[in-house]
Amino acid sequence: MTVTSIRKDAEKRTMTLTAEFTATVAGVWQLWADPRRLERWWGPPTHPATVVEHDLRAGGTVSYFVTGPDGERSPGWWRVLAVTPPSGLEFELGDPGIPDLLVRVRIEERPGGARMVIVTTFPTTGAMDQLLVMGFEQGLATAVGQVDALLAAEPTAG
Amino acid sequence: MVVDEVERAALDDVFHALADGTRRDIVVRTLEVEYSVSALSRLYPMTFAAVQKHVAVLERAALVTKRRSGREQLVSGNVDTVRRAARLLDRLEVIWLARMERFGAVLAEDPEPGASAEGRKSMPEKGTA
To answer: Is the dihedral of CA A65, A116, A22, B94 positive or negative?
Structure first.
């Protein structure tokens, strides 16, 4: 597997990730469509995912929880918006620790295998949008830079 | 993807707090210099009480801290929280890169899991089918 590109576009509020595999399109699709396979890659080894509900249809829900090292469970979910097996999937993602996102997955054939493009979009209204697009980031960068400079000047910062 | 519960709850508060233009403006201003709530309330077309409410939301999210000085409440921005929020896009990248790493590993462990649906050329297999 190779992630061939990852692009962040602040103006469009998107992150676009492209990965290439030697497997078939159908093979790649199965990792989304089969809950047991999904569990094997969705959460990191320290926080494995358990899929509770897997209704991969427009209007359906995929719900899961991840279990932390201390046994604590954090829930997450997809609200499925569109499904076109084996090449397309679109859902809203409520992932622990991250604002809700729109995720669009496209899987297509390429010579020698499959290419998967995942576009995640921050909601049009809300903080991330503003954080990234508006002058806030500018004001932020300036303000944070000033504080960093102050901290650097202090021998026992932190 | 996974942050601990405390941080998760905190981040939800942070994003809720930052979803409002006035509150973002308050954060930017108070990062640079301390403002009293009454000084802030003169900046916006709203009542003192309304501004105080905004400040309370920011305070709950740890985006600002408040201290008393005589009859004034002084507000200053909390740079650590702001920085954490701004790092989210980077975090998202890390999360998905790690996911793709595992995705590839699962595909490799489990060669062509969808092949049966595709009727691929099957690997020659010995023994009984």
So the answer is: negative
